[in-house]
Amino acid sequence: MIRGLLSVLLVLVAVAVSSSLAKPEKNIAKRGKRIPQTLSRGWGDQLVWAQTYEEALYWARAQNKPLMVIFHLEDCPHSASMKKAFAEDKDIQKVADEDFIILNLVYETTDKHLSPDGQYVPRIIFVDPSMTVRADITGRYSNRMYAYEPSDIKLLLSNMQKAKKLLKTEL
Fold it and tell me: Any idea what DSSP says for residue 117?
């Protein structure tokens, strides 16, 4: 009787162990395909990114550098194409790394100054160390003044240099 109970218990334990080992393999395979999420979210993994808007403002003021805020969505095709162009452009990456505090957000902030002409993505806004949103540094579209497309990458670089220059002449 005891031998029979032990063999039934042993079978139950073996089934439980084998089924629990089989399930993680499926999850590992799914997780294995995913890229780990970093603060860059694919915009430039070698760059140092601020985690929050408040942190970015602090570092911009402390280091006397302009802040570049990138608003985007992970599942937006326009954001994805701009992200790819931004990450692949060596000049943009160099200027961003050396001269800017950078932040990318997939959500809107409570600061209404960061959406002067509406909430759309992708949108890039510059903020100087005095915490003034530079509404005068715009892209080429009149209906989405802070939008950039991959074909606007040289304009974005020019605007980054303009933000640097204004910093030196105005502050």
Answer: T
Report the amino acid identity of residue 103.
L
Query: What is the distance in angstroms between the CA of the first residue and the CA of the last residue of the chain?
Result: 89
Which pair of tokens denotes residue 83?
């992200």
Distance CA 59, CA 47 (A): 14
Q: Which residues contact 55 (CB under 8 A, 6 or more apart)?
A: 103
140 contacts 155 by C-beta, under 8 angstroms: yes
Residue 9 DSSP SS3:
helix
How far is residue 28's CA from residue 86's CA, in Å, rounded to a whole number?
31
Token pair of 151 as six digits: 């074909």
Q: Residue 90: in which H helix or E strand, if any?
A: helix 90-99
Q: What is the pLDDT of residue 27?
A: 34
Write the CA distances from 47 to 1, 50, 75, 104, integer angstroms.
68, 10, 22, 12
Instruction: Find where tokens 């990138």 sit.
Output: 70
Encode pLDDT of 84-137 as tens digits.
Answer: 999 999 999 999 999 999 999 998 888 889 999 999 999 999 999 999 999 999
103 within 8 A of 50, measured Cβ to Cβ: yes
- pLDDT single digits (tens) 30-55: 444 445 557 889 999 999 999 999 99
